[in-house]
Amino acid sequence: MDLNTCLRKMELVGVLAFATVDEEGAPQIRNISAIYYEPDALYFFTARGKNFCKELLADGRVQILCYTRYKEMIRLSGKAYAVDEDEQIKWRDRIFQEQPNLENVYPKDTKEIGIIFCIDHAQVEYFNLGVNPIFRETYALGNVIVKEKGYDITDKCVGCKKCQTVCPQKCITEGKPFVIQQEHCLHCGSCYEHCPVKAIERR
């Protein structure tokens, strides 16, 4: 798996859930399909009068989620910005050319009410529940620092094997200290809760 494959899978899913935060700090979520994919960015269309647009202009933070038929979850976390005025029509036309059905929603000149946003810096998480053990990886879109999640086993480990016995994915290997195979970890915290010597730390 890699970043480009994740973006391609998102494109094939088509309709994605976009989450933002409103002016009161409450989460808001909606489905968006008017998206155009480039190898290094996503461009999407919405109307200027929508609360979605207002939230993006005020804050910009957005999280996008999709789930494939193969039990793969892909989550993109980044910041959206309105593209430059002289680029708006170009990207709008690309979206409408690629998705002619949008003309049913915004026919003829009514599409001028729209605004194009771009996301070109984001963290993309891939999580496959359809394999055993599960598989997960995180990728960077643009110049972002990937935030590590999950747990690590420290040098306090005494090798009692308790973490291995309670791990649902059996992804902990023996060593000094024991090691969590991060690509197979659920981040469930079972090892963390059961370690008798508190040798496991949240990342």
TrEMBL record:
Keywords: 4Fe-4S, Electron transport, Iron, Iron-sulfur, Metal-binding, Transport. Residues 147-173, 176-203 form the 4Fe-4S ferredoxin-type domain. SUPFAM superfamilies: 4Fe-4S ferredoxins, FMN-binding split barrel. It comes from the Bacteria. InterPro entries: 4Fe4S_Fe-S-bd, 4Fe4S_Fe_S_CS, Pyridox_Oxase_N, RnfB_subfamily, Split_barrel_FMN-bd. The keyword 4Fe-4S applies. The keyword Iron-sulfur applies. This is 4Fe-4S binding protein. It comes from Jutongia hominis. The lineage of its organism: Bacteria, Bacillati, Bacillota, Clostridia, Lachnospirales.
